[in-house]
Amino acid sequence: MLMLAGIVVLHITTIILLLVASIHNAWWINDSSTLSTDLWGRWELTNSAWHYTNLKDYPEDYLQAVQATSVLACIFAILALFVFVAQLFTLPKGQRFTFTGILQLIACLCIMIAASIYTAELHTNETGGGYGQSYVLAWISFVLTFILAITYLILRKKSE
Q1: Cβ within 8 Å of residue 4, ≥6 positions away
Q2: Which of the residues 9, 39, 136, 140 has an alpha carbon 20 to 30 A from that of 159?
Q3: Sheet of 42-46: strands edge to edge?
Q4: Can you tell me whether residue 27 is helix, strand or coil?
C-alpha cells in the first residue's frame, strides 16, 4: 500500500512538473533578466513592466513541434494516471500495468523530443543568456516519466 501511494505521489508530481514546464515563461532567460522566453511568447522588461511579444524570430515548424510535444506529454501523463487508477480496480491479479507503462513512456518520449528540439533548433545564435528553470523542469520531468514508465512496466498487481 505504501509503494502504491508513493507511485501515485510521484505520478502527480511529474504531472505538475510537466504542466509548470509547459506553462511557465522561463525556457530562456537573458543575462540581465530583462528578457524571458517560453514556448508561447517572449516577455521583455521595459520601464518596470513586462510586455508580451510573439515569437516571430523563431522557426515556426520547430516551435510548433516543441509546443505540440510538450502539450502531448502533459496529456499522456494525465491519461496514464487515470488508466492506472482504472487498472487498479479492473486488472486481474498478477497482471502487469503494461498499458499505463506504455502511456507513460509516450509522455516521456514527448517531453524528451520537445526539450531536444528546443535545445538543437531554438536560441542557437543567442549568446547573452541561458536556459531557464522551465527548461530544467522539462528535463527533470523526462527522467521522472521514464522512471515511472519502467516502474509501471515491471509492477504487477499483487494477488492476495
Answers
A1: 88
A2: 9
A3: 49-53, 42-46, 35-37, 28-30, 129-131
A4: coil
Pairing of strands 28-30, 42-46: unpaired
CA separation, residue 138 to residues 1, 46, 53, 106, 113 (Å): 29, 28, 23, 15, 10
Q: And the C-alpha cell for 110? A: 514527448
CA distances for 64 relative to 35, 56, 89, 104, angstroms: 21, 12, 38, 22
Query: 2-33, pLDDT tens digit by residue?
Result: 888 899 999 999 999 999 999 988 888 888 87
pLDDT of residue 116: 94
